[in-house]
Amino acid sequence: MKDIKVAMVSLGCAKNRVDAEMMMYKIKEAGFILKDDPAKADIAIVNTCGFIESAKQESIEEIIELGKLKEEGTIKHIVVTGCLAERYKEQIAAELPEADAVIGLGANGDIVETLKAVAQGIHTESFPDKSLQPLSDKRLQSTPLHYAYLRVADGCDNRCTYCAIPLIRGGFRSRRMEEIIEEAKYLVQGGVRELNVIAQDTTRYGEDIYGKLMLPELLRELCKIEDLRWIRILYCYPDRITDELIDTIAKEDKIVKYIDLPLQHCNGRVLKAMNRRGDRESLTALLCKIRERIPGVVLRTTIIAGFPTETEEEFDEVAEFAKEMKFERLGCFAYSTEEDTPAADLPQVEEEERKYRANAIMEQQQYTMEEYNRTRLDTEIEVLVEGFDRYAECYFGRSAADAPEVDPNVFFVSERKVLPGEFVNVKITDVLDCDLIGDIVE
User: Is the pLDDT of residue 349 over 90?
Assistant: First the structure.
């Protein structure tokens, strides 16, 4: 396959990015030439997202845009894979003729064979069992060299009534601990200083293969890796935040005091309709315990506004809960109706009302963020350098309170040159929207 140029467009979450990185490694090893720009490639791969309606639409629009490049003769072939391809295999094949190949998640390991077939003009559709999707394999890192995502499991068994992930990705599957540790060491040897631990339900790690929750033990093993500075835990499930996990986060210096804990709601009736457990009282108790035992912890959560049957009073309750809990990081999303999920059959809240409720919580969150940022004024914080912003004419990076790609930045001035991946101390002097402004401290 010498001289055939291939570009990967990966959409959606970090878990999808890991799939793309594993495919890219295979593609490069097979002798294809990888390109960042699809317009400079012979074959464009779209690794689609199919989680909610806006993500599905983005994936479809990307395929159509690449189809225009194909019509112009800029690119020759288009391969569609990922969650949207897995979920809507027949529709994509029938309604998006731009695609020369449509393959499911179980065919990701055969991406090289797919590209060879497409290059020879052979239209390909392949949807083997999704459990054949490889979880452990070599990757070609697509993030900046200093941070990476470490996927410890895939799939989900929680069966939240609004979520299509189990339909798309299948049941929960953990990776063996030794494989994860080996991959982590390899990434750190390549320059990674921050590992972001991910799964659909990270806190469930190990239960399926070891018979118990193993995330705390895994984290302790990761902390032993020399030259690794930060470990961040994303996508935690509230029911599985154990005392052992809290103590591990509190005691281990390499684990940043940041927990991503998608709660979705606080009202007991709504949570039950979501097939989630708990209520405002139990969730408040959990959050207070976390804050008490991990001083200075940053809590990130997500809330769904306008879930089917949610009353105005129930919405007011979750808005009040979010304000009271003062989440340092919060995203609120209008409920997205996903076909073939139980929630789709419930009485729906009007779409405009869903959007209004989501916007109301996000406007409220702006004040919470401003209040939190004011507490950081005149303090000195450690920052992982991301790069230089030529428009702002200063450097920028992230503190331990900021996850990559989703959280704010720290902008700072430095007379000496600093490099991406370097850790520096910055004194915070100002706040701009949600970002922090400061000066490097030598």
Answer: yes
Residue 157: C-alpha distances to residues 144, 242, 327 (Å) = 32, 19, 27
Token pair 């809507």: residue: 88
Condensed to tens digits (0 to 9), the pLDDT of residues 225-277 reads 999 999 999 999 999 999 999 999 999 999 999 999 999 999 999 999 999 99
- And the tokens for 348? 């729906």
Q: Cα separation of 213 and 98, whole Å?
A: 45
Number of Cβ within a 10 Å radius of residue 84: 30
DSSP 169-230: H-S-EEPPHHHHHHHHHHHHHTT--EEEEE-TTGGGTTHHHHSS--HHHHHHHHTTSTT--E
Distance of CA 188 to CAs 96, 182, 257, 421, Å?
A: 41, 10, 20, 12
Do 364 and 322 contact (CB within 8 A), yes or no?
Answer: yes
Are 273 and 307 a contacting pair, CB within 8 Å?
Answer: yes
- What's the confidence (pLDDT) of residue 422? 95
Closest CA to 42 of 50, 51, 29, 33: 33
Least confident of 117-126, 183-192, 216-225, 354-363: 117-126
Residue 52, pLDDT > 80, answer: no
Structure tokens at 125: 């559709």
pLDDT reading at 2 higher than 80: no
Identity of residue 424:
V
Is-contact 396 412, C-beta < 8 A?
A: yes
- Exposed / middle / buried, residue 340 (Cβ in 10 Å: 0-12, 13-18, 19+): exposed
Q: What is the pLDDT of residues 115-124, one digit of tens each?
A: 999 888 888 8
Mean pLDDT (the chain, rounded): 92
User: Which two three-digit tokens encode residue 250?
Assistant: 């509190």
Q: State the Cα–Cα distance between residues 130 and 155, nearest whole angstrom.
A: 10
Per-residue DSSP letter, 378: T
Please give the domain boundaries of the chain with CATH numbers for all domains: 5-132 (3.40.50.12160), 147-374 (3.80.30.20), 380-441 (2.40.50.140)
Partner residues linked to 33 by β-bridges = 5
In terms of C-beta density within 10 A (0-12 exposed, 13-18 middle, 19 or more buried), how is residue 355 classed?
middle
What is d(CA 318, CA 268) in angstroms, rounded to the nearest whole number? 10
Confidence of residue 324 (pLDDT cuts 50, 70, 90): very high
Tokens of 398: 């992230």
Separation between Cα atoms, residue 170 and residue 241, nearest integer Å: 23
Percent of the chain with pLDDT over 90: 70
